[in-house]
Amino acid sequence: MPPSSEHYNFVERLTVPDAEAEYSVIIDGEPVAFGHCKKEWLSLLALMQDGDEIWRSSSPKSEWRRGSGTEFIVLLRDSTVVYQFLTKMS
After folding, report:
1. How confident is the model over 4-55, as pLDDT tens digits?
2. What's the sign of the alpha-carbon dihedral 80, 82, 88, 90?
3. Quick check: is 2 in a domain?
4. Which pTM value belongs to this model?
């Protein structure tokens, strides 16, 4: 079950390999995990500790329809957001 927070809509828990595969893009003919967000991804990985969780957080569908949707990758530690970065916006 996703963690609860009034500021985040946690959609899916991700593993490192799953996140890297899902957010891989081709740059100069090579796959790059998180593409132009690679610096942010590497910062998240550097902060990770045993027991931390990676989650995708997304605005409700109604916000996407209004053109104000956002999606973040969030690092949680003991149900507290330690780090986040934007992956999509409308």
Report:
1. 565 678 899 999 999 999 999 999 999 999 998 999 999 999 999 999 999 9
2. positive
3. no
4. 0.85
Q: Quickly count: other Cβ atoms within 10 Å of residue 55's Cβ.
A: 23
The DSSP secondary structure of 48-68, one letter per residue, reads: --TT-EEEEEE--HHHHHTT-
Tell me if 71 is assigned to some domain: yes
Burial 1-26 (b: 16+ CB within 10 A, else e): eebeeeebbbeeebeeeebbeebeee
Structural domain for 19, as ranges: 10-89
Q: Is residue 3 part of a domain?
A: no
Hey, what are 33's tokens?
Answer: 């995990």
Residue 5 lies in a domain: no
Strand, helix or coil for residue 83 = strand
